[in-house]
Write a structure and sequence with these properties.
Elements: E1 8-9, E2 12-21, E3 24-31, E4 36-42, H1 51-65, E5 75-81, E6 84-90, E7 95-96, H2 97-101, H3 108-127, E8 140-143, E9 146-149, H4 154-157, H5 191-194, H6 201-217, H7 227-236, H8 242-245, H9 251-260, H10 272-284, H11 296-323, E10 331-335, E11 342-343, E12 352-354, E13 360-367, E14 370-377, E15 384-385, E16 393-397, E17 403-408, E18 411-416, E19 423-427, E20 431-436, E21 441-447, E22 453-458, E23 465-466, E24 472-479, E25 485-492, E26 497-504, E27 510-515, E28 521-522, E29 527-532, E30 535-542, E31 547-548, E32 553-556, E33 570-572, E34 578-581, E35 589-592, E36 598-602, E37 607-613, E38 619-625, E39 632-638, E40 643-646, E41 653-659, E42 665-671, E43 677-682, E44 690-693, E45 700-704, E46 710-717, E47 721-728, E48 736-739, E49 745-750, E50 756-761, E51 768-773, E52 781-782, E53 795-796, E54 802-806, E55 811-820, E56 823-826, E57 830-834, E58 841-845, E59 852-856, E60 864-868
Antiparallel strand pairs: 1-2, 2-3, 3-4, 4-6, 5-6, 7-8, 8-9, 10-60, 11-13, 12-13, 13-14, 14-15, 16-17, 17-18, 18-19, 20-21, 21-22, 22-23, 24-25, 25-26, 26-27, 28-29, 29-30, 30-31, 30-32, 33-34, 34-60, 35-36, 35-59, 37-38, 38-39, 39-40, 41-42, 42-43, 43-44, 45-46, 46-47, 47-48, 49-50, 50-51, ...
Helix pairs in contact: 3-6, 3-10, 6-9, 9-10
Length: 873
């Protein structure tokens, strides 16, 4: 029978497809008797139809259905409709592990947690005599309640009667059960499976090790350009240790995976429970006694050796402790985002702060589109959301740890940790950072505001006073221990260089300390922390003479850094407790469908931000960041050939590419180590291109008119904020304003017919999408209904029948549009999928509106790492 939405299988009504593969199709369905949603798996057409095989299948399905475990997808029923065999299973919401791994490796803490849950599920099944035999990331579902293993035991239950020869076996093969045949998916198959031997629980443990390796590193444990080379790698080679790929991983994880991937089943963990126990030790940071999991003789020798080692260690310890007191050992652990929330990371904000006594970490996370301050006591398991901190950014602690200062709604505010409402201290526009001194003064900076600069205000409230200096872009203030003097960063327009500066709250003057390009924080023992070439370093600093007294010592690697603002996500307490965020595996540019499901990738892994498809859709202009320097260049990807070539190479930051209508040139912003300008450059030209819009008001290009005559851009004005301007691209005509009001406007996009523009404006009190006629002036129409993200662009479908924007909660929205001469009609916005845009992101839409090219770094790939007793290293 043909399966389609609306058809019936017994008392199950088929609703919509969920997926398909070598083992059949999976559909969402409704159980009309029990009124619940289920998943129905329709078995492949080659499923054997003999009564004996059906009886065997039903018998094994009954066994599987008795597997009751929180991390195994439940099998409810098995049925037959005509010649169609089907299974009824628990309906799950989430994403498969393979879909998650397409975005990069999992954070360490999540890798360990997911690994323990998979191992527990395997142990439960193995104890009931059921072997999976096709464990792989696509058979692991990540849900809100944890891991769910799919197809558990079904590979064995529905095996066909005869096998496939090795040379004809597809990558996602239908498994077989006869001796001498192969089943499973090659990258996760144990050597005994490749040899056609009988599989047992230890076969699943090999596949578990390969899956665990991929979660931790973002790489396959074994790879090859052909099936033969892949098989050879599994049979003969050892994967690169996890600790080499991810140096911050614990040695225990290396040990677990290496034992799982032993070539001889006798040398592997002999049960999934053993592997789970080792992983729990890794989670808890406890040392594990390693016992070879093979023969009794080796086990006995190991215990004898272990006993001798323990006796020797005890003797040495007694002698050692008589000589000197024990030294505390450094401890590292990770903090993941709160449930259903993501870290908010912004390159002009500092959304991470450890309390002065090192007992609590404050951070900003976004849940359902709302930024809020969360606080995690280090002796607690879960963070707490602080009320009255909606829309907050850049939290910082009072010296006694009783208050948190933060910025929200154009104000500098404070909130007591003992409870009560937030209190406004003063106005604070633009992007901000703050510091709270022992004498009761708060320093804060403003950038991207009509009044950029450094300001001081009493913590009790009042008028802020400017601390002016001969430096542009004063940022990241930090008080020295006396509570009067402070450090900050400044940019010298004359020297075109950045410096660490020092000042006093009682003086408007600051003076130079040293050349430096990163924000700083100081620990009690006089170490100044900052980022250099992508590494967090600590360097001894004399706070009296204001000079460095020793060389820098590396502390952590792969720290995000943004050169224009000098931002880097780290914080240190006065007691030396350190917290930071570091890159995991680099993400990929992805093609996704209208459901947000990955349907392809573009280019190698990398840190990508803004991107733009060419008018003919054959190329993409992409901003690629250098994690060591914090700068970026533009690259051109020829999508059909998968060839990526460098377009710009100047020692500055180049971003926000905009194609000319004929695809022959690109306009972009160039800034960082020099004032921001908009340049234009032809694809065939070398060099940095010519200046199209001069340096005034930080101009950012948005779109090129369809007739090629003008470039739309936004720039900042001291009186009116962000405005939309149009720059003629030929001749000597000067730029002129298109939208210049007391409100902020930007993110302009021209309609495909060239008669309309859409843009963002916050005149209603929040950012919304509006449409207006072009080039004639006229009334505007509001398109969005519940707010829009100010950070993401507006995009059109090629025929102009749909407009796309990102809502305030991160949902990518599609708006049906009907364009006509002098008329603009828009329907209700429809959510498509959530666009994760916590760090550096971007998106564009294919001409047919069915695919989206996405550049986004998932916030859970930037967990907060906390280090205690670092000085003991």
């Amino acid at each position: 029978m043909t399966i389609a939405a609306g058809s019936k299988l017994g008392h199950f009504e088929v609703l919509s497809p969920l997926g398909a593969g070598g083992m059949g199709e999976v559909w969402k369905a409704r159980d009309t008797r029990l009124e619940r949603t289920v998943a129905i798996k329709v078995l492949p057409q080659h499923f054997p139809a003999s009564p004996e095989v059906r009886q065997r299948f039903e018998r094994e399905a009954k066994t599987i259905s008795q597997l009751s475990h929180p991390h195994i997808c439940a099998l409810y029923d098995v049925g037959r409709e005509g010649e169609t065999e089907y299974l009824v299973m628990e309906y799950l919401e989430g994403e498969t592990l393979s879909e998650r791994l397409a975005k990069g490796a999992l954070p360490l803490e999540r890798t360990l947690r997911v690994g323990v849950e998979i191992a527990d599920a395997l142990d439960k099944a193995h104890r009931q005599g059921i072997v999976h035999r096709d464990l792989k990331p696509s058979n692991v579902m990540l849900t809100k309640s944890g891991v769910k293993l799919l197809d558990f035991g079904l590979a064995k239950a529905i095996a066909p009667a005869s096998g496939l020869p090795l040379t004809s076996l597809p990558t996602e093969a239908s498994p077989v059960t006869q001796a001498g045949t192969i089943l499973g998916t090659f990258q996760y198959m144990a050597p005994e499976q490749l040899e056609g031997k009988e599989a047992d629980a230890r076969t699943d443990i090999f596949a578990f090790g390969a899956t665990l390796y991929e979660m931790a590193t973002g790489r396959k444990a074994f790879s090859g350009s052909t099936q033969a080379s892949l098989i050879s790698a599994i049979m003969k080679e050892e994967p690169e240790p996890i600790s080499v790929v991810e140096p911050m991983s614990p040695p225990a994880l290396d040990r677990v995976v290496k034992t799982c991937l032993a070539k001889d089943p006798e040398d592997r963990w002999q049960s999934a429970a053993d592997a789970a126990k080792e992983l729990r030790w890794a989670v808890e940071g406890a040392p594990a006694v390693v016992v070879e999991p093979s023969a009794r003789r080796r086990e006995r020798v190991a215990w004898i050796a272990c006993g001798a080692a323990v006796l020797a260690a005890v003797g040495l310890a007694i002698f050692h402790f008589r000589q000197q007191p024990p030294r505390p050992q450094p401890v590292r652990f990770s903090i993941l985002p709160p449930e259903n929330a993501k870290f908010r990371v912004g390159v002009e904000f500092h959304n991470l702060a450890v309390s002065p006594d090192g007992s609590r970490v404050a951070f900003v996370a976004v849940r359902e589109g709302q930024d809020t301050i969360w606080m995690r006591p280090l002796d607690a398991q879960s963070p707490l959301s602080l009320p009255a901190t909606e829309g907050a950014s850049s939290p910082f602690w009072s010296p006694d740890g009783a208050f948190l200062g933060f910025f929200a709604d154009g104000k500098l505010k404070k909130i007591s940790l003992a409870g009560g409402p937030a209190q406004t201290i003063c106005d604070a526009s633009g992007k901000n950072a703050g510091a709270w001194g022992r004498t009761g003064t708060i320093l804060f900076t403003q950038i991207f505001s009509p009044k950029d600069g450094l300001y001081a205000v009493p913590a009790s409230g009042g008028a802020a006073r400017s601390l002016s200096a001969a430096y542009d872009w004063i940022s990241w203030p930090y008080f020295l221990p006396d509570g009067r003097r402070f450090l900050c960063l400044g940019w010298s327009p004359k020297e075109q260089a950045g410096f660490l500066l020092a000042g006093d709250v009682d003086s408007p003057e600051v003076h130079r300390v040293a050349p430096l390009q990163s924000r700083v924080e100081l620990s009690r023992n006089g170490e100044l922390f900052y980022v250099r070439e992508g590494n967090l370093v600590a360097r001894a600093f004399d706070t009296t003479k204001l000079r460095f007294t020793d060389d820098a010592v590396p502390v952590a690697e792969k720290i995000p850094y943004f050169s224009p603002s000098r931002w880097a996500p780290f914080t240190v307490s006065k007691t030396g407790v350190l917290a930071y965020q570091a890159w995991g595996a680099a993400p990929r540019l992805r093609w996704v469908d209208r459901k947000g499901q990955t349907v392809g990738t573009v280019g190698p892994p990398g840190l990508y931000q803004s991107l733009r498809l060419s008018p003919d859709g054959r190329k993409a202009a992409i901003e690629k960041k250098d994690p060591a320097t914090g700068t970026s260049d533009l690259w051109i990807d020829e999508l059909s050939r998968e060839v990526m070539t460098r377009f710009t190479s100047e020692p500055v930051l180049e971003s926000c590419p905009v194609w000319s209508p004929d695809g022959s040139e690109i306009a972009f912003i160039s800034h960082g180590m020099a004032p921001a300008v908009i340049r234009r450059k032809r694809l065939a030209d070398s060099g940095g291109g010519e200046v199209l819009v001069p340096a005034k008001g930080f101009p950012i290009p948005s779109d090129w008119s369809r007739d090629g005559r003008v470039l739309a851009y936004q720039k900042l004005d001291e009186k009116t904020g962000w405005d939309i301007w149009l720059q003629p691209v030929s001749g000597s005509a000067k730029a002129f304003p298109f939208r210049q009001t007391q409100f902020n406007e930007g993110r302009t996009s021209f309609s495909p017919d060239g008669r309309w523009v859409v843009f963002l404006s916050d005149e209603s009190g929040r950012a919304e999408v509006y449409a207006a006629p072009f080039p004639e002036s006229g009334p505007k129409w509001q398109v969005s209904t519940a707010g829009a993200s100010q950070e993401e662009p507006l995009r059109w479908r090629g025929d102009g029948k749909e407009l796309f924007y990102v809502a305030a909660d991160g949902q990518l929205m599609a708006v049906p549009v009907k364009l006509g001469p002098g008329s603009f009609e828009s329907g209700a916005p429809v959510p498509l999928f959530r666009l994760d845009s916590e760090v550096w992101s971007g998106y564009d839409v294919a001409a047919d509106g069915q695919r989206f090219l996405i550049s986004s770094l998932q916030a859970d790939s930037l967990p907060i790492t906390v280090v205690l007793n670092r000085a003991a290293q």
